[in-house]
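User: Design a sequence. Structure:
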């Protein structure tokens, strides 16, 4: 993959009017009232009080493990939003394409990027190097969507879809570039990526990338192993030499890892009553430290909580 795959991505992800005709924000954005004045339940208490039915297990077929010497990075893939890329990454990881891979680029307040790092690059055997872009999906009732009640700069409506931060207009829906999001590297050609090179957002949400890159999933555990890596010093913060690479042994599908070696996790369902309570708590947070509640929340201001499987 050429080092310049981000250079052409300068287009602003413009706002669209709704299918209903012109309203920038849908009627669902009416003010949601704060919790009762006596309610001071913390985030931890809200989650501790949640029923097990409000949580779902990670699907091993949509979960990737990147094995670093320091620990495991766990990625949940968004099959509903990038089905061909998810299937391709399954094939690539299954054939051992990422054995001996490495993080090759770390740009401060932006991304960590990784790829196959063999001295003699191997071509995919079952997987593909290039696929048609999957920047968006048609808006459909088949894609679950729990909207947030507040306006967004980059989209008419934002919310969460099966745990993934998402946005939509009257015609399309897409995943947003929040912290921890995993996307597919590409060159200038929109169809030049396929999953052989991936990146994770490790800085302030670069929402201008929305609808310009295929979003594959999000890191649900171990993001600190990527965000704490030394920053690259070459062009676009690639590492200047191969000796600087942050190497991992493999990136494998959890379904292909022996069950006793997996990391069983659960994600809070973002269509649950606990999630609604958590969102409103975070919007109106007021305690001994937070004396002035914001009364609003952005799509990148919270993530679907993850816990060990109960």
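Assistant: Done.
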């Amino acid at each position: 993959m050429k080092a310049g795959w981000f250079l052409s991505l300068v287009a602003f992800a413009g706002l669209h009017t709704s299918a209903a005709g012109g309203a920038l924000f849908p009627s669902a954005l009416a003010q949601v009232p704060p919790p009762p004045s006596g309610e001071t339940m913390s985030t931890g208490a809200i989650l501790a009080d949640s029923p097990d039915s409000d949580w779902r297990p990670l699907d091993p077929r949509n979960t990737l493990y990147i094995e670093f010497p320091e620990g495991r990075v766990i990625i949940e893939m968004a099959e509903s939003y990038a089905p061909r890329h998810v299937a391709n990454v399954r094939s690539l990881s299954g054939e051992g394409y990422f054995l001996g891979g490495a993080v090759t680029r770390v740009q401060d307040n932006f991304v960590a990027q990784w790829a196959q790092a063999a001295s003699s690059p191997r071509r995919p055997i079952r997987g593909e190097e290039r696929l048609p872009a999957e920047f968006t999906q048609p808006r459909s009732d088949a894609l679950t969507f729990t909207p947030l009640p507040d306006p967004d700069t980059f989209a008419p409506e934002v919310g969460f879809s099966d745990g993934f931060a998402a946005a939509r207009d009257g015609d399309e829906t897409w995943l947003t570039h929040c912290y921890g999001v995993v996307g597919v590297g590409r060159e200038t050609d929109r169809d030049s990526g396929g999953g052989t090179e991936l990146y994770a957002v490790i800085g302030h949400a670069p929402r201008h990338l929305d609808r310009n890159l295929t979003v594959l999933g999000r890191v649900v555990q171990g993001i600190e192993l990527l965000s704490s890596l030394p920053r690259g010093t070459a062009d676009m913060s690639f590492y200047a030499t191969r000796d600087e690479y942050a190497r991992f042994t493999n990136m494998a599908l959890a379904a292909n890892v022996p069950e006793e070696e997996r990391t069983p996790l659960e994600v809070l369902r973002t269509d649950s009553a606990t999630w609604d309570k958590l969102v409103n708590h975070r919007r109106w947070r007021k305690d001994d430290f937070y004396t002035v509640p914001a009364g609003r929340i952005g799509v990148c201001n919270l993530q679907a909580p993850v816990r060990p499987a109960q």
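The domain at 32-117+130-304 is CATH 2.40.100.10 (Cyclophilin). The chain has one domain: 32-117+130-304.
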